[in-house]
Design goal:
Layout (H helix, E strand, L loop, with lengths): L11 H10 L3 E3 L2 H9 L4 E3 L7 H5 L3 E3 L4 H9 L15 H10 L1
Parallel strand pairs: 1-2, 2-3
């Protein structure tokens, strides 16, 4: 099982760096659940539900609640999921610039 490190709060940019470098993210934050997907990092949600059900359906996010055994099991089973087509293909900026240039 990976090492777990507790730390003081960090700045936004430091948090983004930590998310990108994580092997798995444990959170109760809806925003961080989605950021985990965008960074390609599996997520374990420490709540009983999520507003980002598509991340669960795609295999990126596991709902563990507050149960210790459930959390450990979800962490052990965390692997990258499949792409979420509803989020696009990463070319939004290029499309927007093209439209503005016309």
């Amino acid at each position: 099982m990976p090492n777990l490190e507790c730390m003081e709060p960090v700045s936004f940019l430091d948090m983004v760096r930590l998310e990108k470098e994580a092997k798995v993210i444990l959170t109760d934050s809806g925003g961080i659940q989605k950021e985990a997907y965008f960074h390609g990092v599996p997520c374990v949600t420490l709540r009983d539900e999520t507003e980002w059900s598509e991340t669960v359906a795609a295999g990126w996010n596991r709902i563990a609640g507050a149960n210790a055994d459930g959390i450990v099991s979800a962490v052990k089973c965390s692997v990258p999921g499949r792409k979420i087509s509803e989020y696009g293909q990463g070319q939004a900026a290029e499309v927007i610039v093209g439209l503005l240039a016309e």
